[in-house]
Amino acid sequence: MNRALIGLFSLLCLFPGLAVAAPQVSVRTALLNGDKALVGGTVTLQIDVLVDTWFTSPPQLPKLSLNGAVVTPPSGEALHLTEKAAGTTLFGLRFNYQITPLEAQVYDIPALSIRVNPGQSQQPVTVSTSAQHFSAAQPAGATAGQASLIARQVELSQTLVKSHDPLRVGDTVTRQIQTRATGAQTMLIPAPPFAEVQGLTRYVQPPSVHPLDDGRGGVIGGAREDAVVYKVSEEGRFRLPAVDMKWWGAADGQAQTASVPEVVFEAKGTAGYQAPFSMAEDLRALRHNAQVNIARHWLVIVAVLIIGAGLVYFGRTWSRTFWNRWQQRREQRRHAWLNSSEYAWQLTRQQLAAQPLRLDGLYLWVRRSSGRVDLQSFLGSRERPLLKRLQQCLQNQYGNARPDAVEAPAALLDDLQTVHRQHAPRSLPQYALKPLNPTSTHEVFDENARHATVE
Questions:
Q1: pLDDT band at 370 (very low <50, low <70, confident <90, very high)
Q2: Which of 44, 48, 80 is nearest to 61 (CA)?
Q3: Would you list the DSSP string of 68-85?
Q4: How would you write 96-152 as a 3-class SS string?
Q5: Number of H helices, E strands in the chain
Q6: Contact 21/86 with Cβ under 8 angstroms?
Q7: Start-to-end Cα distance in the chain
Q8: How large is the greatest C-alpha to C-alpha distance in the chain, in angstroms?
Q9: Segments forming the whole domain that contains residue 315
Q10: How would DSSP label each residue in 242-279?
Q11: pTM of the predicted structure, to 2 decimals
Q12: Do 102 and 144 contact (CB within 8 A), yes or no?
């Protein structure tokens, strides 16, 4: 009984050790097509990362670079693997580096460190691949130093597009050639040759390249589309020669040729529209003797605009200051005019000529021109008849009695004009001395007369 309890206790103690056992991580490397690598071909470095649990995050692969070769890193999609080894099920991911040698030499691929995050592991695990080597050879019949198209299959097709049918002089013909290369790098697909033809003007268009997709996110090759536009410059029968493209098989390295047949067409008559200038002559002139002529008046206009813009930009502060000062001076002159005796005199003339009669302007003029506050002290004894006439005019305007003969305010205005001229301010010459006695004898006499009248 005791022995059974001891055995059971030992098994229970082994369970925690089993729970925290480190997961198994392994890496496997293979070099595809490394034994028959060709310059311009593709060598695949295949890396399999295997674990016996699962991946908590994708493995982190390093960047690979080789001198004399173009290396395409693995895409975001990886091939999932499930294998059994020694009774253990392993789960893995497969990654591929695409290596394109550009020179005939030996390439050494160093060991790569891969960071893996397996399930049930407390920390990441780093594994290393084995170093690989391969040698690239020049394809048979290829020219050294030139890129060679190495592929599993190459297909050429062409399309001919006419601007008008039948063709006439001035019309255009567009020849499009499509190249599909399976198992080749897109950037290594050469451009097809487009020959020059007598009677046609050639315009080569920019190419369009894109990778070939296998439908699952993988790249299986490349495609290229080239086009050339021929403009018919004379009548006749024209022949576009066949296009041949040489390539080498990736499996056996044998040279092969893909081609499209020649194209024959005829142009008769003249198109209804003719260009007002010769495009060929203009292009030749621009290429050999490019000159730019600008009229002199345009230079003057541009210079004036630039100077004007500079004055506006740098003179904003000055102009704003000048405008503010001008506004202040204008307001000061207006304020001085409204407070002047001349303004009061104009107001007096308007009010004496209006109906009903008003005298507030007259008293304002008296106060501003002489400093007096009433008509009696302003007119004095010498102008006593004028004072009586003013009093009579006020009585006629605002009194109850309405006499038959009423003096017109215009007559009083003429007499007041004489008094205005006597009291008008006289400008002194510059640097002149002020009067010794500011109060004139006439004002003293008027003041004495006013006091006598009051007494």
A1: confident
A2: 48
A3: TEEEEPP-S--EEEEEEE
A4: EEEEEECCCCEEEECCCEEEEEECCCCCCEEEECCCEEEEEECCCCCCCCCCCCEEC
A5: 10, 22
A6: no
A7: 155
A8: 158
A9: 299-333
A10: PEEEEEEETTT--EEEEEE--EEEEEEEE-S---SS-H
A11: 0.50
A12: no
Question: Which residue type sits at 236?
Answer: G
Same domain, 327 and 354: no
CATH code for the domain of 41: 2.60.40
Q: Note whether 41 and 33 are within 8 A (CB).
A: yes
For residues 114 and 136, what is the distance between their CA atoms, to the nearest angstrom? 27
Distance CA 269, CA 166 (A): 9
Give me the amino acid identity at 333. Answer: R
196 with 303, same domain: the answer is: no
Contacts for 191-197 with beta carbons within 8 Å, 24 or more apart?
A: 191/224, 191/226, 192/156, 192/226, 192/243, 192/245, 193/243, 194/226, 194/228, 194/243, 195/240, 195/241, 197/230, 197/238, 197/239, 197/240
State pLDDT tens for residues 169-216: 999 999 999 999 998 888 889 999 999 999 999 999 999 999 888 777
**How confident is residue 363, by pLDDT bands cut at 50, 70 and 90?**
confident
Residue with token string 């893995």? 92
Evaluate whether 223 touches 178 at the Cβ level (below 8 Å). yes
Burial of 91 (0-12, 13-18, 19+ CB in 10 A): middle
- Please give the sequence-ordered ranges of beta strands (E in DSSP) within 271-413, or none if there are none: none
The per-residue pLDDT for range 226-264, each reduced to its tens digit, is: 999 999 999 999 999 999 999 988 888 888 999 999 999
- CA angle at residue 246 from 243 to 250, to 5 degrees? 145
Q: Amino acid letter at 180?
A: R
**Tokens representing 441?**
């004898």
- Smallest Cα–Cα separation from 359: which of 394, 392, 388? 394
Pair (160, 269) in one structural domain:
yes
Q: Kindly report, residue by residue over 43-99, the tens digit of the pLDDT.
A: 999 999 999 988 988 999 999 999 989 998 988 778 889 988 888 888 999 999 999
Q: Which of 241, 275, 309 is the last residue of a domain?
A: 275
Cβ atoms within 10 Å, residue 301: 11
Identify whether 5 is part of a domain: no
Helix (H) or strand (E) holding 390: helix 384-398
pLDDT above 90 for 139:
no
Q: Which residues contact 408 (CB under 8 A, 6 or more apart)?
A: none
With b for 16 or more beta-carbon neighbours within 10 A and e for fewer, the 333-353 pattern comes to eeeeeeeebebbbebbbebbe
